[in-house]
Amino acid sequence: MPDYRVFPVWRGTGVAGGGGNGDDGGWSAAWSRCLRWEHDGPDRSRIPVFDYLAWLVLSRRVCQRGRGAVGLSADMLSIKLPQLFHSHQIPKVFREDSIISGYRRPHSSALDCVLSSFQLTNETLNIWTHFLPTWYFLWRLCALCSSMNVLSDSYTWPLLIYMLLICVYPFTSSCAHTFSSMSPESRHVCYFFDYGALSLYSLGCAISYSYYVMPDPWINTWLHQHFVPFAVGNSVFCTSLSCYSRFLELQSAKRSKALRTAAFVLPFVFDTVPLFYRLLLCCGGGTMSSSDALYSHCYHLLFAFLTCFLFTAHLPERLYPGRFDYFGHSHQLFHVSAVVGTHFQMEGVLADMLSRKAWLLAQQGAPSLLGTLGALLLGLILNLGIIGVFSAALMWTSYHSARSQR
Ligand SMILES: [Zn+2]
User: For Zn(2+), which residues are the binding ones (predicted)?
Assistant: First the structure.
């Protein structure tokens, strides 16, 4: 006789008392039937899905009985969630294009912001679509660290820096979205850090591309030797321009968006020029034609273009304002597309790194500490300095505007 069990791992006590009617017996009897649900009746044609449906009904009754047993009323169990706001109820600085409802209270506390990530608001999926991938990339980083000799093999250092930065940028973004409703100033500072992390990510891409992805004919050329220093300059430009764009947001949203887009497109195009060369002009020869790597790089570029499109187009919410406030608006899709693109980029970099190792080490030598960790530290210090300057300018402006209004 087939033995269908909902939870086959453990047989609960009091099973014998359960005959299939959820009203028989007390709370414990019903609970035991939840733990084990045997197919022992005459109806042999019954399939497990009916058992499952019966289990759902039974669990509901068990929950109701359990609630009664400890004396809790439905009102006591219902948790009152903080009120959400419409766009016309909050200051302009907190509003998002074509998002009408689901805004958190402006001037929330830090604890409110953290708790709001468990409430459905228009920011919830923005938070989680970057928080969860952080753990995925961190897991990949840990797996690589455990499988490679990262301390003594300097060939792995560019990869480590890249992997570290693809963990940092989604985490910073997730934090920025979480704490962006504390105050107008904190919102700006949160996104300054978000832009800084993205800018450092572009530097990490340049470092890894310089050592693993560069086309064969470009190795040891002037561009190759200056690729990482240029990328440090690009990250300074990117962070400065994107932070500056926030100051223009209230006066001219279009100009602000155009500047911010340009700030991120420039380092992306610079980093990707070697890859374009490989894909468009010479993917058929030398060590650079590893098909695994090229497929991954192609998918990465596809998602990179989709990411840029979603960031600038504000679709689909621009077509149906208010309909995608909670699920499916462009910023959530932008996050998902960016993360999927980063996954393919990581696979492409890894494939190139492993398949071209012997040839690259023979041609360009091992990566130096200055060219890898040195470049990262310089980029980090410069970016933190820029964020500090813009934050100070913001506080200064807010302080003087508050004083003039008194
Ligand atoms: Zn975001």
Answer: 177, 331, 335
Q: Can you state the percent helix, strand and coil of the chain, rounding each to 5?
A: 70, 0, 30
Residue 24 domain boundaries: 15-77
Arithmetic mean of pLDDT, 55-73: 45
User: Does 9 fall in a domain?
Assistant: no
Instruction: Give me the residue label for tokens 């669990």.
Output: 59
Ligand 1 centroid to Cα of residue 176, in Å, is 8
Between the CA of 331 and the centroid of ligand 1 the distance, in Å, is: 6
What is the total count of domains within the chain? 2
Q: What is the pTM of this model?
A: 0.78
Compute the average pLDDT of residues 84-105: 90
| Joined tokens for residue 55 | 């289990």
User: For 24, left (φ over 0), alpha (ψ -120 to 50), or beta?
Assistant: beta
Q: How far is the CA of 383 from the centre of ligand 1 (A)?
A: 19
**pLDDT, tens only, 321-376:** 989 999 999 999 999 999 999 999 999 999 999 999 899 999 888 899 999 999 99
pLDDT level of residue 405 (50, 70, 90 thresholds): confident
Distance 392 CA to ligand 1 centre (A): 23
Question: Do 332 and 257 belong to one domain?
Answer: yes
Q: What does the mean pLDDT of the chain come to?
A: 81
Annotated binding residue 177: yes
The reply to whether 314 sits in an annotated binding site is no
Q: How far apart are CA 91 and CA 333, in angstroms?
A: 25
Q: How far is the CA of 72 from the centre of ligand 1 (A)?
A: 40
Is 8 domain-assigned? no
Distance 194 CA to ligand 1 centre (A): 8
Q: How far is the CA of 348 from the centre of ligand 1 (A)?
A: 24
Domain boundary among 25, 50, 77: 77
